[in-house]
Model the fold of this input.
Amino acid sequence: MTKRRKRPGRKAIAITSAPLDAVPVVGSWLEAHPTVAYGKLVPVLSLDIRARPDIDELITAHIDGPMFDVDVQWAERPGQPFSAVVLLLRFRRPVDCAITLDLPTFNQIGLIDQILMAGALHLKRAEAPQKGILVMLPEAQFKHEWTERLINQRCEAGRMSRQQAIAEITAWREARDLRLPPNEGFDPPPPDAE
Done:
């Protein structure tokens, strides 16, 4: 009888250089819509794409609806463990385009966590944020690695036990797991409803 070897899961890779320079993230917020990601709060990144006409073309060519035709890789810069997370996105259609996003953990932990928990991300132009693309992210091994890092970070920073750190992170995630009920959007009240 031969033993089956387990295949290792995909982990965050260390990168020495990104395929392209990181696209500057100039703002972020959360949005929810009942038909997107089961009504979860989805992070929105406002990007400065003035130097990247290919991203502008991708957003312009995008037909409303989620983008599933994208390769996703979570990574880190070498020598900087848990100081910055890099999200590499490679779009094939409607425009061939690669986007590298540097997300520093010192001020983006909640954003990174919400991207992983929602499994989705909105990318919008900083100059014209009314149109963007919704990127559906596949379940990643990095999600589990990220959770473990958060637990360890909370244990070290807060001088708490592992169980306390897990409880704190769980409570934090539950507080952000607000969802819109199906078919109930952000419709404004009629003008005569005053």
